[in-house]
Amino acid sequence: MMSNDNEFIKFENVHYSFGDAPILIDITGSFPEGKITTLVGPSGAGKTTLFKLCNGLISPDSGAIFINGKKIESFDPVELRRKVGLALQSATMISGSVWRNLALPVTLQGKQLPEEKAIELLNLVGLEEKFLKRNVKDLSGGQRQKISIARTLVNRPKVLLLDEITSSLDRVSQQEIEELIVRINKEYLTTIVWITHNLEQALSIGDYSWVMMGGEVIEIGESDILHHPKDERVQRFVRGDME
Ligand SMILES: Nc1ncnc2c1ncn2[C@@H]1O[C@H](COP(=O)(O)OP(=O)(O)OP(=O)(O)O)[C@@H](O)[C@H]1O
What InterPro entries does the database record attribute to this sequence (predicted)? Predict the structure, then answer.
């Protein structure tokens, strides 16, 4: 990490198990503020579990997590989820209109999302106003993913956690989503953490990268480490010998 980066989310010797099975082992590292960090590594490495720790869905067995210098337990769970937005590969939607879906985070708080605010969110993700009243079942995968990202932006999160959000999309939609995330990162200085299986993507959009395997962080550094990893297991992974 660059020494002048603020460590927005920081892990210190974090362990997490499910029953007897260790899922995360001695995780130490940070996601710098306003930067894009990618998480790469084979299936089952523990990447999604790390995300669940960041927004308080689960708590570590031992070790500490800090959000902007404050212990994660000191946040109210609702406040934490507002600060740390999460978007998933499946872009889960409720039935009905785009507007209804965009409004979900505020309707859950018993409030309404005004039309002009909904349109502003649509514009932000590059969709026209006419989409507002469309039924989500008529949208393409790429459009659904844009709605899903717009929805996480309703609460102006400080951090966006993205779990494989482009892996089921065609190349054009994938590029649009990448551009969108880079724009959000630049305009709002949102800290981005992006789980991806696509190493090319990690290299092109990420400032930093974490390589995880078997519940451990094997390498952390500027994205360039993916070009010439030191660890022999990571070398095999980036050559594609491991999935
Ligand atoms: N609720 C659970 N019960 C039991 N095991 C779990 C549970 N959640 C995760 N695991 C296990 O934890 C390990 C890490 O899973 P995780 O989903 O975090 O990995 P991942 O790196 O995100 O993988 P993928 O790329 O396949 O999503 C896996 O071995 C998984 O089987």
Answer: AAA+_ATPase, ABC_transporter-like_ATP-bd, ABC_transporter-like_CS, P-loop_NTPase, PstB-like
Are residues 213 and 24 in contact, defined by beta-carbon separation less than 8 angstroms? no
DSSP 118: H
Domain extents in the chain: 7-239
| CB atoms inside a 10 Å sphere around CB 45 | 24
- Ligand 1 near 68 CB (within 6 A): no
Quickly name the fold that domain 7-239 has: Rossmann fold (3.40.50)
C-alpha to C-alpha distance for 101 and 113, rounded to whole angstroms: 10
For residue 179, the CA-to-ligand 1 centroid distance in Å is: 29
Nearest residue (CA) to ligand 1, atom 8 = 49
Tell me the whole-structure pTM to 2 decimals.
Answer: 0.92
ipTM of the complex in this document: 0.91
Over residues 100-125, mean pLDDT: 92
Q: 209 CA distance to ligand 1 centroid (A)?
A: 20
In this structure, the residue with its CA closest to atom 9 of ligand 1 is: 49
Residue for token digits 């999935």? Answer: 243
